[in-house]
Amino acid sequence: MFDSIKTRLISLSIAVVVFTLLAATAANYIIVRNHTQSQVLSSLNELASARSATIAQWINTQRNIVNAILPTAAMTDPQPQLIQAAKSGELQSAYVGHADKRMYFNAEESLPPDYDPTSRPWYKLAAASNSLVLTEPYMDASRNQLVVTFALAVKDGASTKAVVASDVFLNEVVNTVKAIKPTPNGFAFLVSNKGVIIAHPDSKLSLKPVTELAAGLDAKALKQLQESGANWQEARIGDGDFLLRGVAIPNTDWVLVAAADKSEALQSLSALLRAAAVVLLVVLVLAVVLMTTVVATLMRGIDRIRAALDEISAGGGDLTQRLPEVGRDELARIAASFNLFAEKIQHILLDVRSASNSITTASTEIAIGSQDLSQRTEQTAANLEEAASSMEELTGTVRQTADAALTANQLASSASSAAAKGGDVVNQVVRTMDEINNSSKKINDIIGVIDGIAFQTNILALNAAVEAARAGEQGRGFAVVASEVRSLAQRSAEAAKEIKGLIGASVDRVEVGSKLVEAAGASMTDIVASVQRVTDIIGEITAAASEQSDGIGQVNGAVVHLDQMTQQNAALVEQSAAAAESLKDQARRLTEVVSVFRLGNDERSLSRPAPSPSSAAAGSAASTATPAAAKSFKPSGFKASPAKASPPKPAPSPKAAAAPAPAPVTAAAGKDDDEGDWQSF
Question: For 268-277, what is each residue's pLDDT tens digit?
Fold first, then answer.
């Protein structure tokens, strides 16, 4: 899914947008939440403080009533004052208990005879305190209402003389607590520090432990609810979560706790989250549409580049394609770089194609030259066979001359005739030896041409290897071909040198034989001229005939050896022809490899012009015509390696000069090739 750059860019852009929106929403939510929590806490504090002030005011009123009836403790009949206090203060009862167990009420009460007020909890609590005390609330059995007792002791020093007290219904306090509504489903309750519920909207919970309302509201939690500056506490009450905040009632151990429904108190946060979710979805959809459109527009250029590369790599090899360079952004720069790359590759392959065509032409010419050389070599071999036959005849004639010398006196006339015939044969041998000498020189010239061809082929192979190295991965196959061609050229050069050496030796031997034949001719002339003196010099004739027999034997051996060398030359020429055919096949294969690419027309001028037919026919003589031009095409950055100067070559014969040139472009040789560098094309 994420293999495409387009998908990655869209996903990344959407992720950035979503992350930004989430961060902004989270920041807004935190700010609003803190503000809302602060408002809710402030509202709870204000509400609880206001209602606690109301309850505290009611407590102070009841305390004032008790303080007002305090003088009745010294009266002998305090009932009228107690009745008046009960009416004005809406008390359940007002009474006074003395230390001597006397008891006075605002109304008549039937008390048991052994009733002792000093044993009652309200009396003991007041006697133990130096100020007005408030008892724990209790349920009035007759009216099923909560009642609390306010008591104040009258002391004489450390002893208690009497206790003035009043019982008050907590209806007003309960109603005040029930009226507290922090939220529509919120409520409040009044609890003592001991954890006993005093007032609650549900009267069934009155005087029950507060843990029955919420399990976590113990004494420690109640104390924390009253701490100023503290945050609210959350509690699970019934089926809902509530936010609790408590305020202590002054002069009591009571705590007024306001409970706000959490969902209602923080409903603005929920609304904010819903609105943020809607906005996030809307913006996400818009971002997807917008980023898809923008990225698709930006990726069109990359798609064009991909299509062009696919066209090249899929087998079409169209290097004539060019991408439009629109704008000045990165895609336009990529398109420009791609166009430059394609143009360079196109030019390189055009050079490779031109070089392969040149190699094909050169290999064809080499093959033709090799075939011509093979024919000439065969002709030379035939001539050598004729020379060998003539030498055998000459040997027989010399033997006859030696035999005839024994009977020269009787066969003078026959000796004269035989001597004449011997002179003719010697002249023929002289002509034959001259022809052999000329043929050997021609063979030597042809071998020089083969050597030049091998040298130029080596140059072409080196240049092809350089061009293949420049082509990089695409030219690796051509580099292998160039290496094989170079190897074949080196082998051809070595074979040509060997043939040249053998031919040189043959020429030397032929010259020796020619001299011997000339000497034989002179001897035969003397024989003809001195036939009249045969009798006198018969011994000399016999010795001369013996020497002639030995010389002719040597000449015959030389001719046989020359025939063997000629056969070897023929084999080498056939190998050279086979190498030329292999080079031609490799060049054709290189052309086929390059033809895979669509290169268009090569309208630019190449570094070297193609050879014309006239220059191709100029042969090896044209190779030495432009040495400076050949040197001017060395590749830049190439350091020449020193090489020995080639020995001067003999001038080619007319037939060799008319032979086809072995390569369309040649390099200087001999003394002009003093640097030993290969040449580029």
Answer: 667 777 787 8
